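Subject: Geranylgeranyl pyrophosphate synthase

B.,
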Amino acid sequence: MAAYANKINLTSRRCGARAAVRGNKHNNRGVAGRVAGLGAAAKKNNGGVGGASSGSELHAVEVTSEAVSELVVPEIPKDFSFDDYVKETAAAVEVALDEAIPVAYPETATEAMRYSLLGGGKRVRPMLTLAACELVGGDAACAMPSACAMEMIHTMSLIHDDLPAMDNDDFRRGKPTCHKVYGDDIAILAGDAMLSYAFEHIARHTPRDKVDPGRTLDILCEVGKAVGADGLVGGQVVDLISEGKAEEVGIETLQYIHEHKTAALLEASVVSGAMAGGANDEAVECLRRYARRIGLAFQVVDDILDITQDTETLGKTAGKDLDAEKTTYPSLLGLDESRRVAENLITEAKAELNYFDDPAKAAPLLALADYILNRKN
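Prediction pasted inline below.
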């Protein structure tokens, strides 16, 4: 994966953590022997499965050598309540999602869509969209169609990811997965319908009197790229062909998977909100850099949680990555180093928000970054 630019370099300074991997040693006693075994051979190969490469640099995170301790990070105002923000924003998103996909003929299709879409979830992606819109001075209502679309696409990815042909999971968000309730066939179609409707929802419901139609087209392009072969689908494909090949999977391939399978949609969530809010190009790119870092950190934390939390806490089957012999950040770097990578990415992401010089407006994005780092499921 030599063409994949801005990769994490295990032998150089990373995110200011100076985190060099020393041989094949794992100094984390809490990591099961299987974790260390999966990572030992992988660290010898800093490339990818079958020499996989990508010409895309859209989602690649450039990891700097600047010490994280030297970065100035905006402080969240003391009067900002993240709990209240989450409660109020999630409630508004829930209402919008419920209205977006009503029960209609054929009921089996819409009921399956609603079962997964309205079946809980943290609503991180819609919150990122709305928070980015408001940060740049926009009206959250202008970004709500995009926010709903992000959750629809995320839900589609979960429905498909849980299928027997993919990750084969029986539980999601603490209840039976869509295909366990409606069957594989309906689950596939429900996901397909949700994906296509997400684009329609943005195009039809983004207020044309408040958001320039050209900007709406930009949002649609951004989302389309994040979902396709250069985004979510591409990451999922490389993830699938990498299963059981831990000895061939190095840090470049792992970062490619995470940035495309997970971070791409988080990036699109933030950027679409900024675009709907009328941000200039410089502000959009600043928020893009923020989103790339929280996106990669999100998946690094996911890797950690997979081996440190139980199924009940996660709301999905724990230990799936180990069972599938997937390479993860803990398997390559160990738990402690993986935590440092996540922490440094979040610090760098938050530092990007200095551009806006308004900690009060930036508070939701700052707090969401902290949430992504410290979440338990």
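The CA atoms of residues 177 and 310 lie 18 Å apart.

T.
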